[in-house]
Design goal:
Blueprint (H helix, E strand, L loop, with lengths): L1 H18 L15 E5 L5 E6 L6 E8 L13 H8 L11 H8 L9 E4 L4 E8 L3 H16 L5 H17 L3 H13 L14 H6 L2 H11 L5 E7 L3 H12 L22 E8 L5 E10 L6 H24 L9 E8 L4 E10 L4 H18 L3 H20 L6 H14 L6 H11 L5 H11 L5 E8 L9 H9 L26 E7 L4 E6 L4 E6 L7 E8 L7 H17 L6 H7 L5 E7 L3 E8 L4 H13 L5 H20 L3 H13 L11 H5 L3 H11 L7 E6 L3 H11 L23 E7 L6 E10 L4 H25 L7 E7 L5 E10 L4 H18 L3 H18 L3 H13 L10 H5 L4 H11 L5 E7 L3
Parallel strand pairs: 2-6, 7-11, 14-18, 19-23
Antiparallel strand pairs: 1-2, 3-5, 3-6, 4-5, 8-10, 8-11, 9-10, 12-13, 13-14, 15-17, 15-18, 16-17, 20-22, 20-23, 21-22
Helix pairs in contact: 4-9, 10-12, 10-15, 11-15, 12-14, 17-23, 19-24, 25-26, 25-27, 25-30, 26-30
Length: 932
């Protein structure tokens, strides 16, 4: 009764709120009233918002309205270099003390403790705990130091040159070479074309210390900065911290004006043909440039909603073309949105099949022309409006569960773009008030304004091997200008329920509870086991997963590809009586997703829904598992595109693909089941057989364990489970997966791969083997990986300046076999490979001899503890942990042992673990070097 009263009251309040919404379109959009904003006497702005998700956490950002666009010719790359230097010493945190302090607070370098530099801004981010007031206040000291107290120690600058040059090296390749030709055309006539944030290597290597110091002094000043703080804290207290640590920052004298830069409208059509020997596929990009729309007034918001409706409808039409037996492209998009330099753009992209660039481009342009000449249909617009409103309603339902990072990032953009962040409730009320009034004629008129004959840029990017068969720039423009003969779009829908007949429900035959972890175990009358965990982590989310052993391991090589592709065949074919396109239209306004998969060792279902749409999700699941549908045209189109993609990647293999394929082959002991896909194998696929195998994998319901996590009650959910899962057919017996000889080989293996023209190398080192399968030992192996990662950042990056981002990961699994892997990987100069590998091995030997540095253990435990605390409030974490535990018949309560596992990590344990599992008996090293 109380729930009914609450629901009635909620509806009344919502209706009353909507009835009182009298915002006029000519009014300025209001800032979210929960945001406290202000400006200090020195010009520093601040935005503060209380938000309790996640609890005892806050996001603190420093936004600097200065990026690479402000650099002089002699300063190219210094905005980004300055960002790096903030982590190498400030007034209150000399040298590496800042990074060390933050790591000991639980922040991971690169993941949490990070920053970015763009053309127009530099932004520093700190996601921090708030449960210790003294330490929380100290984080504002960190931001304040970043704002104007970087030490710029000369020794640290010289060490950081190597790090930034390695970051530059990592970005080199086909895409950077293409970009260097693309930007002068797309950004023609603007400074943006010549101010990539990464800068120029020769400047990074040789700039004078005074040049960096001058850049910092010019642009790191309070009138060009803002502090954004969102999280679980006292707003007035945070405002006090901001005034205390930022109010005394001097404004400086005779500071240069922060100039705004624009990309000029050319008026005509520019074109460029770009080829590269490492570019594997052909794509065409077409930009129609328009003045930027900023959301300042209600009228701007209404226009923005209209643009969203256009993007939704155009996207659906282009997706529909992929359902044809011979799709005109591998991928197509036509979408209107933000561009750069005061511009928006209608961006048209078509990824062509081999030798079919004209067909691909014209197919997308024809859809633009169809929309321009005939417009959209009322039914399309109605669906787009419903989908838009559903999204706003979803945001509103989760308003008190919205992550602080979302608000923080939006407020940063508020500062940088001089706009406001409206309240989520306002967003919903505005949509309800003005969405319905957007007419079809209005949308169709807007489309005509998007597709113009001027201010266009067309770019064709293709493999160098196809150069002789490509159009000229003049011909490319002719294709674009060519009159397209089109007919009106016909909107075909299927007006019937998902289920033709109501299933006969099963029953719950047993029920047990595990109060310690809040889990209920059910067994249905058809033998299916269902695990339930009700949570309030999200207001409007239910996630579920079903798992069973077997997968493609049960099929020999002759059937392996059909088994692996079966789920894709089923998906592109649609569901029940619905084609994939009809299903997408039917699902308008519903939030439900159900995907079936067949993996190497398991098959299963992954799904999620809103609370109100859980029945729809379960209906989708039931239909998927009880009916077979083969859409021959859609499957033929899917296979054709897969074939073409594989052909492109195999004819022009990128260095990354060759390296990845080599790693896969070596790590699987050259198992024939792990070979890269070929055109011949695609051609040998049998869609009908693939669908039969897929159906067989899900034919026995009681071989599955279903897990549901989210905001539900058993009273609401169980009848639906009985109806849609309890009615699934079962048969006797249980399956298990089949084992193959595809584990990493024993011994020491060194392999060199030569591919690519850039002067860069990639190193991958794997330590592999078996362990006892105990959770504690697995946790110690994984901890060792993270601790080694901390040390290699210190040694390879900070001390040597030889890498940008070394990565270390360790994993231990007890099923299907008790095996582990510890992987070290990094990119570097080919000349430094042996040296950096040597340092890596030296640090591993130190772990074996001495154990981990106590300081590194402290950092690891702090980082891991924050992760564990956040994971425990995540539906996804519980879904994964519970479903895997029950699949492998493990005690699910062990999910709670994360903090207990941390207690086992010590200097002694790391020494013992390293000595045993990093012994050097089984080591695989693969190095990618440029071609000779």
């Amino acid at each position: 009764m109380k729930k009914l009263i609450s629901l009635t009251l909620f509806c009344f309040i919502s209706i009353a709120s909507f009835a009182q919404f009298d915002f006029k379109l000519d009014q300025k959009l209001p800032m979210d009233p929960a945001v406290k904003e202000g400006t200090l006497a020195n010009g520093m702005k601040y935005y503060i918002r209380k938000n309790v998700e996640p609890k005892n956490r806050a996001n603190l950002y420093l936004a600097v309205n200065a990026g690479s666009i402000l650099e002089t010719d002699e300063e190219q790359g210094l905005a980004h270099f300055m960002e790096h230097m903030q982590f190498n010493g400030t007034k209150n945190f000399p040298k590496n003390e800042l990074v060390s302090f933050l790591q000991k607070s639980g922040l991971k370098f690169g993941a949490d403790l990070n920053a970015y530099t763009s053309f127009d801004e530099t932004v520093y981010q700190l996601p921090v705990p708030t449960d210790t007031l003294e330490k929380f206040e100290k984080y504002f000291l960190v931001l304040s130091d970043w704002a104007n107290k970087a030490t710029l120690d000369h020794e640290e600058i010289d060490k950081e040159r190597g790090v930034v040059l390695e970051e530059s090296r990592l970005g080199k390749g086909a895409q950077s070479r293409i970009r260097d030709q693309l930007f002068p055309v797309v950004l023609k006539g603007s400074k943006y074309a010549e101010r990539l944030p990464i800068g120029k290597d020769e400047i990074l290597q040789n700039f004078k210390y005074e040049t960096l110091e001058a850049f910092y002094k010019k642009w790191y000043r309070p009138d060009l900065q803002a502090v954004v703080a969102v999280g679980d804290f006292d707003v007035d207290q945070v405002e006090g911290f901001i005034k205390k640590y930022f109010g005394s920052i001097p404004t400086g004298t005779k500071m240069p004006k922060r100039e705004e830069f624009a990309i000029p409208m050319s008026g005509g059509t520019d074109a460029k043909i770009i080829t590269d020997k490492e570019q594997p596929y052909t794509l065409v990009q077409l930009y129609y440039k328009h003045p930027e729309l900023k959301e300042i007034t209600g009228a701007d918001r209404r226009k923005s909603m209209s643009v969203s409706l256009f993007n939704s409808m155009m996207g659906a039409r282009l997706q529909e073309l992929l359902q044809k037996a011979d799709p005109p492209y591998q991928f197509g998009v036509s979408s209107y949105g933000g561009f750069l330099g005061g511009l928006d753009a209608l961006t048209v992209i078509a990824v062509a099949k081999n030798g079919e660039v004209e067909k691909a481009l014209k197919a997308v342009l024809e859809e633009n022309e169809r929309a321009k000449e005939f417009g959209f249909t009322q039914t399309e617009l109605d669906r787009a409006k419903t989908q838009y409103l559903t999204g706003r309603e979803k945001q509103y339902k989760e308003r008190d569960k919205t992550n602080s990072a979302s608000f923080t990032q939006e407020l940063v953009q508020c500062y940088l773009n001089n706009v406001v962040m409206t309240d989520i409730g306002f967003d919903l009320d505005f949509a309800k008030a003005y969405l319905d009034g957007i007419t079809l004629d209005e949308i169709n008129t807007m489309v005509k304004s998007f597709i113009t004959d001027g201010n266009r840029v067309a770019v064709l990017v293709a493999p160098e091997k196809d150069k002789e068969n490509l159009p000229s720039e003049e011909q490319l423009i002719e294709w674009i200008n060519e009159k397209k003969e089109v007919i009106a779009y016909v909107d075909e829908t299927l007006d019937q329920p998902l289920l033709a007949n109501e299933p006969t429900p099963g029953k719950v035959v047993s029920r047990t509870t595990k109060p310690a972890i809040g889990v209920t175990e059910l067994t249905l009358s058809n033998g299916v086991k269902v695990i339930l965990k009700s949570t309030d982590f999200k207001n409007d989310e239910i996630q579920f997963r079903a798992l069973s052993k077997g997968g493609s391991s049960l099929y020999g090589l002759a059937e392996l590809d059909d088994a692996s592709f079966g789920s894709a065949v089923a998906s592109v074919s649609g569901l029940g009586d619905f084609s994939a396109t009809q299903l997408q239209k039917y699902m308008t306004g519903k939030i439900a997703r159900v995907n079936a998969f067949v993996g190497n060792k398991t098959e299963g279902i992954i799904g999620s829904s809103s609370v109100k749409d859980i029945e729809t999700a379960l209906q989708m699941l039931h239909v998927r598992l009880t009916t077979k549908r083969l859409d021959e045209a859609a499957v033929a189109g899917f296979i054709a595109n897969q074939r073409d993609f594989i052909k492109s990647m195999n004819e022009t293999p990128t260095p990354e693909k060759v390296f990845g394929d080599t790693l896969t082959a070596v790590m699987s002991n050259y198992s024939p089941r792990s070979l890269p896909m070929t055109v011949e194998r695609i051609d040998g696929m049998n869609p009908s057989k693939a669908l039969d195998i897929f159906a067989d994998r899900f034919a026995d319901a009681d071989d599955f364990v279903y897990t549901f996590v989210g905001n539900f009650t058993e009273e609401m959910l169980v009848p639906l489970l009985e109806k849609y899962i309890g009615s699934l057919p079962s048969k006797p017996g249980k399956e298990d997966y089949k084992m193959y000889d595809d584990n990493p080989p024993s011994g020491v293996i060194n392999k060199v791969v030569r591919k690519g023209s850039e002067d860069k190398a990639t190193v991958a080192i794997y330590f592999t083997g078996k362990y006892n399968g105990k959770k504690a030992k697995g946790a110690q192996i994984e901890a060792l990986g993270d601790i080694l990662g901390l040390k290699l950042i210190e040694k390879l990056r900070e001390e040597e300046g030889g890498v940008y981002s070394p990565r270390v990961s360790a994993s231990a699994q007890d099923k299907p076999e008790s095996t582990y892997q510890l992987n070290v990987s990094f990119g570097c100069s080919p000349a430094n490979v042996d040296k950096l590998v040597g340092i890596t091995m030296e640090e591993i030997n130190k772990l074996k001899t001495n154990g981990a540095d106590p300081s590194d253990i402290q950092k690891y435990k702090a980082e891991e503890l924050l992760d564990i605390q956040e994971q425990m409030k995540s539906n996804g974490f519980w879904l994964s942990g519970l479903s895997n535990a029950y699949l492998n018949e493990k005690e699910p309560a062990k999910i709670l042992e994360g903090e207990k596992m941390l207690e086992l990590i010590s200097v002694k344990s790391t020494k013992k673990t390293a000595k045993k599992y990093l012994s050097g008996k089984n080591v695989i090293k693969v190095v990618l070097l440029p071609e000779e």
